[in-house]
Each structure stands twice: as structure tokens, then as C-alpha cells.
Write a structure and sequence with these properties.
Strand order of the largest sheet: 1-2-14-13
CATH class of the largest domain: Mainly Beta
Number of strands: 14
Radius of gyration: 39 Å
CATH superfamily of the largest domain: DNA-directed RNA polymerase, insert domain
Largest sheet: 4 strands, antiparallel
Number of helices: 11
Shape: rod-shaped
Helix content: 25-40%
Distance between the termini: 69 Å
């Protein structure tokens, strides 16, 4: 991760799902240029690498190629295959399945007329496949439905290798994503005004939730980049960081801040000093234990009303509480004349 994130913090990620078929991802702030880097990478994976369901072949009684016509159908075989490519289906398991589509005497044939198993869901039953006009109701169409990834373009070699000569192969687009667009917006953090914010919108055909599509795409990208994350991977600690390092640094700063709040304003009253010594310290501007510990004894002795007796008392109280640091700690005096000195100073 870019070292700049130690200054601006980890990027915030928010996914706003608008139902199952559309979602918008917002991510930022990001270093300059990273909006395009991440947005374009996610877009390419969304369009090319997610699993989906599509028609890969069709078989019609008496038809051997896609440029033929079917008696009783208003559409040519080519038009029918184009309509089949638009079907919105969801197949739960991997592997091809053949489903039947019987003809009608007359009327429209839609996706809802497909005789599918429980392994296949028809997402839009109203999609039109063809229209019958005095068709033979004994005839039927057999459709091959498969689950795959990306776009599959049929080649002449595949046509020649197909075992069933009556099966017409169909180019298939398996991607469940219907559209992806991203926008890089300007963002700022403090005085940094050249940062990026990524906004990416994705729509699916309903066979895969849009939010899941975003997360799956990110995981696919991560799995490829993890190839580089071995024990011998090169890391420049001066210009890179990780989420763990950013999190640890933030927690450390919060702990230090919390500790500072807890100790920075400890009132001096809790030491239980005599009223005379306490007044001398307060009048001298020392109102907290922290101020007291950071003030040299030589400076305390210059306060009005703070004499040898106060010095002895303070040394005893601080010693009992373990607050002495030893640098300029006062020591209790056994001189019997201390009281006299204190009284003379007070007068």
C-alpha cells in the first residue's frame, strides 16, 4: 500500500446496494492516479471473469445450420439463436444441461415455456424466443444450457468436432454483469488536494447479486497478486505500508492520546499536602501533579511560602506515592532547625 496512507489513513470503502441487480462502490481517499488503477482493474474483471449461465447450443428437428428456416415459425434460425443468447438464466451447478422447448400451433414462445429442471432458474420468463404461426405442435426445440466464465466464441474447429451434427453451436456470453462504469472524483485530506475518490457502479442480470459481484472481482484480483507475496518478495519500507501497519499506528496513537487525557490533568489536591504547602504551589501556578514533577526543586524553592519544611513534606509525599524521578528529588532533612528556617521565611 502507498506510504501516503500513513498520513491520510486507510481508504474508506462503502458499497450502496440498490436491490440485487445494482450497486455502487465508493472508495477514498486514494493517492493520485489510484482511482483509475483500481477502477479499471475491477471493471475488466467484472466484465470478463465472473461465472454465469448461457445457451451454448440449439437443436431443431430437421434443421442442420443457422441460416435455415423452420416451417411454422416467423423467425429464422439465426434470429432464434440471437434471442436465445439474450435469455437470463441461473444454473446452480457446473456442467451442460439439455432442456426442451415444445412448439405451439400459434402464438409466442417465451422463456417461461422452457422445460427446465430444479437446477436452472428462469430469471425473466417473459423473454420472447420466437413466434409460431401454424407450426407443428409435435415438433420441439432442444437447447443446451451451460455455466461458464467470460465470452465463448464458436470456431470452425469446434463445429467440426461436435459429435451431434444437428446441434447448432451458439456464441455465449456467460458474464452476469450487464454494465460497469466508474468515475474518479477529486478528494482532499487536510492540505492535500490532489487525492482521488473512486465511484464504481455495476449492474447484473440478477443471477449474481451486484454487491457479491464486486467482492468476487476484488478477490480474483487479490488471488493473482498474492503470487508475488512470497517470502522473497521485495518490500521498500520507506515508501510502502500495509493495512496492519496503519491499524497498529492508529491504535498506538489512540492509546497515547487516551493516556495523555488520563494523566495530563491530575489535580495536585490528591497528594494530601498541607494547606500551607498547597497554597504555595497553587499561588506559584502549579496546579497538577504533572506540573509538579516537571518543575525542578530549585525553582520550587523560589516560590513564596515554599521553604525547607515544604520541601521535606513534598519529598515524603512524593516518595510514598512513587512519583519521584530521582533527577532533582527533594530529600527529607533531619535538621531540627528546619522549623525555625521555615518560620523565618514565612515571616
Amino acid at each position: 500500500m502507498h506510504i501516503l496512507h500513513e498520513q491520510i489513513g486507510a481508504p474508506r470503502l462503502h458499497i450502496d446496494a440498490e436491490g440485487k441487480t445494482s450497486a455502487t462502490l465508493t472508495m477514498g481517499p486514494l493517492p493520485s492516479g489510484y482511482g483509475v488503477t483500481l477502477g479499471n482493474a475491477l471493471r475488466r474483471v467484472l466484465l470478463s471473469s465472473l461465472p454465469g449461465t448461457a445457451v451454448t447450443g440449439v437443436k431443431i428437428d430437421g434443421i442442420t445450420h443457422e441460416y435455415d428456416t423452420v416451417p411454422g415459425l416467423k423467425d429464422s434460425v439465426l434470429d432464434i439463436t440471437l434471442n436465445l443468447r439474450e435469455l437470463r438464466l441461473k444454473k446452480h451447478s457446473k456442467g451442460a444441461e439439455f432442456v426442451e422447448l415444445p412448439f405451439k400451433k400459434s402464438g409466442k414462445i417465451t422463456a417461461g415455456d422452457l422445460k427446465v429442471s430444479s437446477d436452472i432458474e428462469i430469471l425473466d420468463p417473459s423473454q420472447i424466443i420466437t413466434t409460431c404461426d401454424k407450426a407443428d405442435s409435435k415438433q420441439k426445440m432442444t437447447i443446451r444450457i451451460d455455466k461458464g466464465v467470460g465470452y465463448k466464441l464458436i470456431t470452425n474447429y469446434e463445429n467440426a468436432a461436435e459429435e451431434d451434427p444437428e446441434l447448432i453451436l451458439v456464441d455465449a456470453n456467460f458474464s452476469p454483469v450487464t454494465s460497469v462504469k466508474y468515475e474518479v472524483l477529486p478528494a482532499r485530506f487536510g492540505e492535500l488536494t490532489n487525492l482521488d475518490q473512486l465511484s464504481l457502479s455495476v449492474s447484473t442480470d440478477g443471477s449474481l447479486d451486484a454487491e457479491k459481484a464486486l467482492k468476487l472481482s476484488a478477490n480474483i484480483l487479490q488471488s493473482y497478486f498474492e503470487i508475488f507475496n512470497n517470502e522473497e518478495a521485495y518490500v521498500d519500507e520507506d515508501f510502502t505500508t500495509t493495512f496492519e501497519q496503519i491499524k497498529a499506528k492508529k491504535e498506538s496513537e489512540q492509546q497515547e492520546s487516551s493516556a495523555g487525557v488520563d494523566t495530563a490533568f491530575t489535580p495536585i489536591d490528591i497528594l494530601g499536602l498541607s494547606q500551607r504547602t498547597l497554597n504555595a504551589l497553587v499561588n506559584g501556578g502549579i496546579t497538577t501533579v504533572e506540573q509538579l514533577k516537571n518543575t525542578p526543586m530549585s525553582q520550587l524553592m523560589q516560590l513564596r511560602g515554599f521553604g525547607q519544611k515544604a520541601k521535606t513534606e513534598l519529598a515524603q509525599v512524593l516518595g510514598e506515592r512513587g512519583l519521584e524521578d530521582g533527577n532533582d528529588a527533594p530529600e527529607a532533612s533531619s535538621n531540627p532547625d528546619d522549623t525555625v528556617v521555615e518560620e523565618n521565611e514565612a515571616s
